[in-house]
Amino acid sequence: MLPFDQDTIAAISTPPGTGGLAVIRLSGPRSLDAIRPLFSATDKLEPRVATFGKLTHTDLGVGDFDDCVVTFFKGPRSTTGEDVIEISIHGGTYLQQKLLEVLLRAPGVRAAGAGEFTLRAFLRGKIDLSRAEAVADLIHAKDEAAHKNARHQLSGGLRNLVNKMSEDLIKILTVIEAELDFSDQEIEFTPPSAFTAPLQALQATTQSLLETYFYGRRLEEGFRVPLAGAPNSGKSSLFNLLLGQERAIVTAQPGTTRDTIEKTIIVAGHSVVLVDTAGLCETREEAESSGVDRSKDEIELADLIIWVQAPDTNDIKSLKTINIPQITVYNKIDLTPTPPKNKDIYLSCLTGEGVDTLKEAIYSHVINMKNTGVQGVILNSERHRDIFNRFDTQLSGCLSAINNAFGPEYIASDLRLALDVLGEITGKTTPDDILNQIFSGFCVGK
Amino acid sequence: MTVSRESYEVIVVGGGHAGIEAALAASRLGQTTLLITMQIAALGRASCNPAIGGLAKGHLVREIDALGGEMARATDATGIQFKMLNRSKGRAVWSPRAQIDKHAYSAYMIAACEAQSGLDLFEDEAVKVIANRTKTRVSGVVTRNGAHFSCKALVLTNGTFLNGLIHIGDKQFTAGRIGEAASVGLTESLVTLGFETGRLKTGTPPRVKRDSIDFSKTTIQTGDADPEAFSFSTSNFHPPNEACYITKTNLETHRIISGALHFSPLFSGVIQGVGPRYCPSIEDKVVRFSDKPSHQLFLEPEWSNANQIYVNGFSSSLPEEVQLASLRSVPGLERVEFIQPGYAIEYDFFSPSQLKASLETKQVKGLFFAGQINGTSGYEEAAGQGLLAGINAHLQVNNKAPFVLGREEAYLGVLVDDLITKDTDEPYRMFTSRAEHRLLLRYDNAHFRLAEKGHALGLVSTTFYMAVVKQKQLAKKAEATFDTIYIKPQKVAALIDLQAPLKESQSITNLLRRPHVSIEQLKPVLPGWIQDLSPTLLKLIATNTKYRGYIDRERLQVERLAKHQNTTIPDSVDYLEMAAISFEGRQKLQRIRPETIGQASRISGVSPADVSILLILLKKICFT
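ok -> structure tokens follow
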């Protein structure tokens, strides 16, 4: 968390978990640039005025991602003294994470370190000098906590993996630096193309590691499993049945569930967040319409969809959910002697028939989603993900320098940047580390 | 050797590469200056190899020149073979090297010092530093023969002379260099003032008779046919191109050495000082790289047509007879005769963490250290420090702010920052890999980077400075022009042999960025005024263009770091009281006592969070 205040930092600034609203905060000179490609009303932003608009981005799924309210605080009249953007969106950890991910891809934006907003606020004179010690202690405490957390995560596989990746990079850099610094001596020349394979291997590992992030987040937050279907298909009854308690209001009136309701159950040792959604249909009622929008969001972002149908409702599966695993449940079998074929599960909430089969189906889907990780390592922190994303980009830079037959000094420059990025996890690699490798591996010196 | 007074503004002790630059800089900047040396005839003597420059070191020499130092000019005047190293690689890592005529080099430096107005030379041995009662301000120096000089600033550049102890096999004797007495008393005087001292070791190979070598069994190595001068001010450069020769050790050589290791003070534990790993003795190489069947040896003449040859690669502290017997197993050296055996030397140094970035000591105002006394090795590293210490002694005398170069500005900046920030455990040598902004810090643009500073200091002539300003403007204009001139594919194909033909027109900038495209190939399509630029400037412009994307990225990193880099930390800070900083961080900060936040962030063991907390607490200290 070096005070590089030319960087723009971003973080979710509301407490973790799912609240009604979440706020994502950006601070730094590129705040405005970072949201411009996403936010429909960037040009309407005025300092200190909350502005309503839509968030749209191809990486955020098709169509509008969410409605949001953005407030722009022009530095120095802001909490940190820099340009600050606060984006308020509807709750849902997944949405928050996804938005943060996209923001972190903007140039010059990185994940905020422990206490970094406070640090900036202090250094810009936004916090009273008499509180210096308190701020210092706060940062110390946050850093300790982050450190402990990191140590915890790093205690096993991740640390070994990252150390191994650093070592692999250092090996390559050592060869190149030895050639640059000791070319007047007997050092065998290695063509840079020899580094392509090890760099590609590193990149493959990095990308596999990045793929585990999805699972890693799910481990933290639970797999999202919405119950979806037409109004009155019995989603809330099924929801209650799965939870074993009366959580959702169940009435015979279609459209009772106007907003989503969620609850966590444990399946195969994993948290599964069951989401009871509003029924999908054309409706004129405004409250219900917004509930339907939320349902659509939930369904499109689901890990597993449970479609609920019944003899007395329409079959609605109109949303774009091709890539998401789904289970089709035919409910209320007590109402019909001849249920249609090709449904996954036939069930009656009234008699409880078929519920165990559904539970088993959910169980096997969860087991299927299990990711064994890269050498057992699963990424779950946004900061690590940000780091590996940047590392991936730097590796591409190294590889393209080699492909374009750039000289060793270019490749070394790219490799050093890649090492610097990894260094945010393992600690910085210094020139002395490289020189030590050279001296132990090569007979140099006249 | 006329001493005109008893009181000088600046006194320099030591007449090696550091001392000379310090004394010349201080006197050129108008200070009455005295250089005390044990032997005026030994001024500028090259104790080890007869060469100046080399990888990264060549960069230092160019920077010294751009700041008005003497080393580059002396090298151009007395070099007998010039070679640009790394020529097969990009220009950022090219580095000039020259074999010098040691005698001529020394004579050049003696003449330069004698001719320098305001500089007196005095032959004696400094034995004691005089300070005020509180040991916080230097006031003079006392010599072996009882002379007492007072001064406002004192620069110590004692090289390997402080309690120097030479080892050849189990023989030991005190000396500063072979044949020259050690300096005794000064270390103790400094310890009394409160300085911490340590021991380092270095070594040098044997010198042999040219007429005892059979060169027919060696490979000849000559310099560049079109040599480049070190100094920006050298013109009409037509130096000699004398040959060096390469031969190789073999298993028999290694067998003789291995059999005699118990005689080596390095292996028997007699030598306590730590030696440089990048400059290992032959016995070290044989032991540590036992799988290598041979090691290259370079036979280098010590001066023009010298009968004395330097056996580069055969540094040793083995007994003379073992050195001789093993060397005689090498092709071409079967009947070699020694003029002087190789030897190891141990000497006192003072940990440079006791220095500020100006090379002034933290404890004693007006006292500066430069060169090997700071635990460095190499003529170029020494000369660079000497120049900076001389400049800063002058600034100190005149109550002006010190002259400090950033890591992004010069290898000299990297050198000083590394010295004062890290704990030296072996003699420090410059490498290009030490510079994080290597593509910015090139040998060819040293004047672009530093002439303005040299001119502002008063060490660089206005004529030279104005010429550099003009060149910079032309370079900028040419680089912008390269962006706007597009060449059609057919035309490109006529100029350059491309593997795949271009589909559309390309700017000169884009063409130049291709690795194998040179500015010479594109010359026919350049505007006349660019064609007319000097070849050197044209190459520099092309190099800037080639590296532009990477250089921009390096600059961005510099800017990213810049904000708090130069925030200064007051002397009075007590780190041990800063409980919010990690324990290790506090200890390290207290020891190194960094001058700026930038320096603090580079101390190993000080975490980024520690630096943040330091910033917060400093803000409070500075405002309350």
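The mean pLDDT of chain A is 81.
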